[in-house]
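ligand=iron/sulfur cluster
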Amino acid sequence: MADQQSKPKHDPSASQQLAAITAEVATCQKCPLARTRTNTVPGEGSSTAEIMFVGEGPGREEDESGRPFVGRAGRFLDELIESLPMRREDVYIANIVKCRPPNNRDPERTEVDQCSNYLRQQIDIIDPLVIVPLGRHALGWFMPELRITASNGKIFRHNNRVLMPLLHPSSGLRNPEHGRMLRESIHNLRDAILEGIRVKRETSQSAQPSTTAPAPEPATPELTPATQIVEEAEKVAAIAIEPDAPADPPVNLFERPQTEEEIAAELKRQRAIEEAEEAAENETETFAVDDRQSSFF
Ligand code: SF4
């Protein structure tokens, strides 16, 4: 895993490595989706992004343009990113499979297995503070034991990565309650970024050789748009506290399921709720699905 704390704002080697993956994807014939695609959709964004959004696969408009999340769902994702406030160029957006499955079907397991190594490489190169799986299929690739509705906006540690799943933006477009949840949950990224910084520090400390001398303080990560958001929020919070006001009890910013046991207990309780919600949604869902990005739920 790359060292996030020493990662420069502009890393030509990371850009070159991502470009090499894009070139390899462009000619990839590893799975049958190569025969039906118009364009490959490798992903786009900052090579030093601290937030990485991951969907399942390209839709019709993505297949036509070669860019991820450019349809209605993509415009909603842009709106969510800008509400942070950040720009689309500050983050990285990718999918698990890089070619559109025909007829809006889900990708086959073998197609996911063939393609997902590209995503693994992109994650290793970008080394984001936070990965945001979008929708239940993307979440299922990272943490299949989780359910998307119950996990939306929550922060998880997984394999030394911080994940904050979100409902798919297309679900937010057609379900007002999901849209409201997304507009609220996107702001949990502040806490997720802080958790990502904490994980980087812990990883960096555990990688340091043992010595009798006191270990030096880990370097503070370089300010980038994501960490600037955290800093600005903390400044605002500090100004809002009156000097003589009694101190509030400490707040656990990362209040969430942390251990495997806690996750399991939380999931058991919420799975029944989510299954009931999904059953109700399936009964009432009558609209047509017109592109891949709209078929995730
Ligand atoms: S989906 Fe992935 S593995 Fe399949 S052809 Fe496209 S790039 Fe290659």
